[in-house]
Amino acid sequence: MKPLLLLLLSCCLLACQPDAERPGTQQAEAELQTGAEQLQQYLPLLQGKRVGVLVNQTSLVGGQHLVDVLLAHKVNIVSIFAPEHGFRGDYDAGASVKNSTDSKTGLPLLSLYGASKKPSARQMQELDIVIFDIQDVGVRYYTYISSMHYMMEAAAEHNVAMLVLDRPNPNGAYVDGPVLDSAFQSFVGMHPIPLLHGMTVAELAQMIKGEHWIANADKLQLHVVPLSGYQRSQPYSLPVKPSPNLPNDQAIALYPSLGFFEATPLSIGRGTEFPFQVIGYNKFGPSGFQFMPVSTPGAALTPPLMDKVLLGEDLRQAKAQGLNLQYLLRWYALFKQHDEVFFTSAAFMDKLAGTDQLRQQIEQGQTEQQIRASWQSALQQFKQQRQPYLLYP
């Protein structure tokens, strides 16, 4: 057969292939492997060791939970540590998680979001190594990275090794927002990083150790299993919702922008089927869109403005990329027009922002462009500072 005819035939066959078989389409996505899925990389570290795991409902290896996979490989799991929202991810935001026993495995469930956010000396003395494998969303005030911080610190104090199994950051393409001022450090912001830091949990763990953001950082035996086939800016749709009120990609993309509304009297959809995808208030709103929060699983603790008809914005189809300050600025102006207090919890707003400057800039009437300009120097410095810890292009 002549070369030209062969070329035409092969092009025709390629065009007829389904997308999953074409180079560069879904096949490329299938090549992505989380740290947990690369068992050969870390099972040798666990042999003969007493193992603790800091995990939740996102800690999957294929369709199986990491705990079940490790037990099937005869790993000696001593205890399971649970972050905010619990081991199964069904506790409300802010709800205290209690110590208990896992009904399936009989293993002790130890809370890191209750009376204490840091493991006790007794709990750590029973371990040789602890694994962190939780899906984060790349926003500083999302508390899983704070639980990782305290576990790293406890591991360093008690000569326990730490293994971080990496997962993609769905907001990894963005580095934006104010860098945290240490005067405003809290459990919703523990590190001098921007609101959107653009790092995975393994990269961040390396930075926490390398920059000595924990006590005894040099003593910590930190191991990480990086992602395979991952690039920082590639889209990643989470297979499991990371917490009750982040049910889909849109909510996760809007979370950096709407999280600030937790310091105001407005609703951002807790108690609806679309949390973190709407904004509303019972007295006035910028459009005719209406919704009503009610008590629901994941928002049972009296969501803001429960059982009231709210007027507001429907953002379910809005373009959501990174941090958008227009929502805050628009609603602040509306509240000022109606002579109502917008930042009803100013101290909490400052903790979420990691600074009091953002709130003051909004109250002073600064534009988004002016506010963003004030971040740029610190953002550039952070990008340089994080460079040694990055694992992906």
From TrEMBL:
Residues 51-249 form the Peptidoglycan beta-N-acetylmuramidase NamZ N-terminal domain. Pfam families: NamZ_C, NamZ_N. Keywords: Signal. It comes from the Bacteria. Residues 254-392 form the Peptidoglycan beta-N-acetylmuramidase NamZ C-terminal domain. GO terms for molecular function: peptidoglycan beta-N-acetylmuramidase activity. Residues 1-20 form the signal peptide. Coiled coil: none annotated. InterPro entries: NamZ, NamZ_C, NamZ_N. This is Uncharacterized conserved protein YbbC, DUF1343 family. It comes from Rheinheimera pacifica.
